[in-house]
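Re: your question from the hallway

Yes, I did run it. Sequences:
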Amino acid sequence: MNLATARGHEVQCVMGLLETIATAASLAIILTVVLLIRRGRLLEKYALLWLAASLVLLVFSLFRGLIQTIAGFLGIYYGPSFLFLAGFVFLMLLLLHFSIVISGLSASRGALVRELALLRLEVERLRRDAAE
Amino acid sequence: MKTLIIVPAYNEERNIPIVLDELRKNLPDADVLVVNDGSRDATADVARAGGATVLTLPMNLGIGGAVQSGFVYAHRAGYEAAVQFDGDAQHRGDQLRLILGPLEAGRADVIVGSRFVAGGPEGNYQPPFLRRMGIGLFARVLSALTGWPLTDTTSGFRAYGAQAIALFAESYPEDYPEVEALLMLKKAGLTASEIPVLMRERPWGTSSITPFRSIYYMVKVLLAVFIGSLRAGRR
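Structure:
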């Protein structure tokens, strides 16, 4: 066995370890999401999103070459850069989505608070009228 | 005209008695609604003792949310006119008839009390230099966008007619709402007009606007103004 193949073998072993860890991590995320859904802690639309995201991670973990292939197709020289880019874009879109959701929640919270205050005032009035 | 005075108040137990006293002296016929915006002090008790109807918001919504509560109340109770009169006593009761007069005469849907309009009275309270600069900038931008001559777009001392009350009961900007509200009026096909009024510095406590917040204020409002006018352009 010459030095080159020895080193190649070593690299493959390291990759094997990495793949194992990545696959395990992806499976852990999927499991977490499933558990959260089972306990009713996640709305279905978010559950779907996270399931899809973790499935993508799982596919990439199992087929490491896929990252390099897609990166090469897009003209990205260093495969993991593509992964960072994809992750970053995904997180940005997610944050934007959450900002939209929070804005909507804030508006409906305002309407609820107002309605509650007006109802309380109405109750006070009715009580006072009834007492008189 | 059936008129409601809307007094937004957050922790103003010391200023509220002054405000209510002035309102009673100058406009005894009008109903007064103090919108207690989740105060932690005795604002609600003090206001009730002063004879006002008190609408207590269970959570703090900020000035926009508080004033909108007043509009919803006014709209449902069928008021024909409403005046926003701040709970920090910077608005003056003796100016109330001045601001209601043009509204009753049908000059516009909203009458804005301005500290800067030409021909105004002498000895008016002048805000600090930087804030005056900001107000001047808004005034120029808003005048250009609406076609109304405006000088004090951040003034909260305003009188509203029934149509404006209905519009703002439906939707009103959340924080620093005064400038955006003018644009909403324009978009809805309503009108606003200024009259000169006197204001004073709040007697007690500090304003919620700090130097850092005034920068946020400027950026936020300009953004809202330009996005708002984009939206208007598309329609």
